[in-house]
Structure formats: structure tokens, C-alpha cells
Amino acid sequence: MGETMKAVRLHAFGGPEVLTYEDGPKPDVRPGEVLVRVRAVGLNPPDWYLRDGYRALPPEWRPDGDFPLILGTDVSGVVEATAADVTDFQVGDEVFGMVRFPDGVMTGGGAYAQYVSAPASHLARKPAKLDHIQAAGAPMSLLTAWQFLIELGHDAPNPFQTFPHAPVELEGRTVLINGAGGGVGHLATQLAKARGARVIAVASAKNAAMLGAFGVDQFIDYGKAAVETVVRDVDLVLDAVGGARMERLLDVIRPGGALFLVNPLGFEGHDVAAQRGIKVSSTQVRSNGAQLSRAAALLDQGAVRVVIDSVFPLSEASRAHQRVAEGGIQGKIVLTVA
Question: Do the domains 145-281 and 4-138+306-336 match in fold?
């Protein structure tokens, strides 16, 4: 029997209670890969969707469940070993990254564990001024914001539309971020500001101070006002919320503007958008260490900051998922690994 490690594993789909902290096999390092001693793990929506068996999808799209599964993609840690063909990293390097996404979307990325193996191309050196908790909170949310707003960075087929997503010019433009207090939203808000945009942030009242500290130009408390009744003629809306009635956001966009949907499922406004010349686009975030390296410079400079909602030890991953179910998350939830 090979070496073992502590991990949080799934033996069946279900609620937070199915997350089991136990011994499992330590992963091997294959060509092109790095073994990371995990210090912290960031939680993301695909984690709880997979834990639940993707019950929101049609039955024919749901995963079969090759149990046991280990959830998680976002890690920060220290290089423990490298394959012989890896030259970019050495043992002892502090790294962070989003591991195997979307390839592992139905099988788990393996990050809820003491060790995870990852393609070297999915990792970047951890920003020196961030601790592992902050770094683990960044990858998926930051890469999502980056690939929507700054640079797509790949030519993989787009699962949501027939054409590739293309970011638009931000400098001097007015950008509205819907869901600006969440994981993707709070980072997208800061990226847009860093790129010279005028930013309107839509979030709950408790996020007003945080978003004000990021320098947003206008804050809208969605509990007090429907955004489509108070805003007009923005150049770009990034919707990080999804769900029902996304098409109402078309009313705040100028003719010829753009609507970017992080979760486009259920959007019913394509005909209206076409009539107004509004570009509607989405994409699926993909692992990209090179992009994280570029974004790391902004994190080190303090131009972009990762906000942490709450922190739990790996052994209490089920409690972390219960926190998700409570809602009202500000920033990111992170697991620490002893």
C-alpha cells in the first residue's frame, strides 16, 4: 500500500454531511506535474454543485459518481516534489493555482486534501505579500474575472455559445458589476477599477463599506432599489449572480454595449439584445498559471485584494459547506490544512 494523507472525500452525493474527513491515498506525480503540500483551499460553486450531484442539471448531464471523490480546485501551498520534466518550479516554492478545471468539474479536482498533484501549467508562484489563506481564495474567482474582462487566454470551444468570448475595452468606460460583494464580483470590481473603468457596484447593504474602500464610483443596494430603475447607458454589465430575470439587465446598457454572464443558464433576452445591438457573451473559466502570474502582480501591489468571508480547518469542510448554504457570503470561504 502506498503513502496516505488526510483528505475530505465523498462516498455519495448529498448535503454537507456527506463530506468525510478520512485517510486516502497520497497522489502520484505524473509527467508535467507538481505535487503540492496544501496549506489552504478556496471554496467555489462547482464544489457544492458536485457534492450535490449536480441535481440542478437534467438527469442525462449529471455525473455518475466514481467514488470516492475529492472536491476542490483552488489551492495555495508548497511544492513537495516535481516530475523530471518540470523546470518552472522547485521543491520548496510557494505556489497557488486552480487545478484541473474544467476537466475535473464532474470528478473533483482533488484539492480538499493534504496533498494534490497538479499540472505545472496550472500553477503560479504565490504572491509574496499574501498569506496562503488569501492566495487560496483567489484562483477561480480571479481567473473568472480576468478571462471575462481582461484576456480569455485560450482557444478551447465555448460550451455556452458558438463564438469565442472576447473582453471589451475598459479604460474610460462605465462598467456595472452585479453581485459585486461575492467571490467573482469583488475581484472583478477591483480589476475593472485597475483598468481605468468607472465602476457601478450592485450588492447588499453590508458590502457598501468594502466596495467603497475599493473606490467604486457608485454603489447600489439591491435591497432598496432595482438596478434597472436607477441606472442607464452603461457600456458593460458583468453579471456574477445569474438566476431568474437576467434579461432585465439589458435595460441598463446603452445600444451597442455588452452583457457578460458568468452563469448564462436561463437567460432569455437574446432577441431583445440583438434588437438593441447589445453583445451577450459568456465563457467557462479554465486553469491558467500564466494568467495567475500576471494577476499576482496586482495582488502583490495591493491593487487587487482578496476578501475572506470565513475560514475553517479541512476537517470541518462540512461546516464550511453549511456556511455556503446560509448565503450572504462576502468574498471567499477558505479551508486551512494542518
Answer: yes
State if pTM tops 0.85.
yes
Contact 150, 167 (CB under 8 A): yes
pLDDT in tens, 116-164: 999 999 999 999 999 999 999 999 999 999 999 999 999 999 999 999 9
229-232 contacts at long range (C-beta below 8 A, 24 or more positions apart): 231/176, 231/200
Domain 4-138+306-336: which topology? Quinone Oxidoreductase; Chain A, domain 1 (3.90.180)
Asked if 299 and 129 count as a contact pair (C-beta separation under 8 A), the reply is yes
Domain boundaries, the chain: 4-138+306-336, 145-281
Topology of domain 145-281 in CATH is Quinone Oxidoreductase; Chain A, domain 1 (3.90.180)
Give backbone dihedrals phi and psi of 77, rounded to 5 degrees, phi first: -175, -155
Q: Which helix (H) or strand (E) holds 81?
A: strand 74-82
Residues 7-36 as b/e (b if ≥16 CB within 10 A, e otherwise) read bbbbeebeebebbeeeebebbebeeebbbb
The CA distance from 159 to 231, in Å, is 31
C-beta separation of 44 from 141 below 8 A: yes
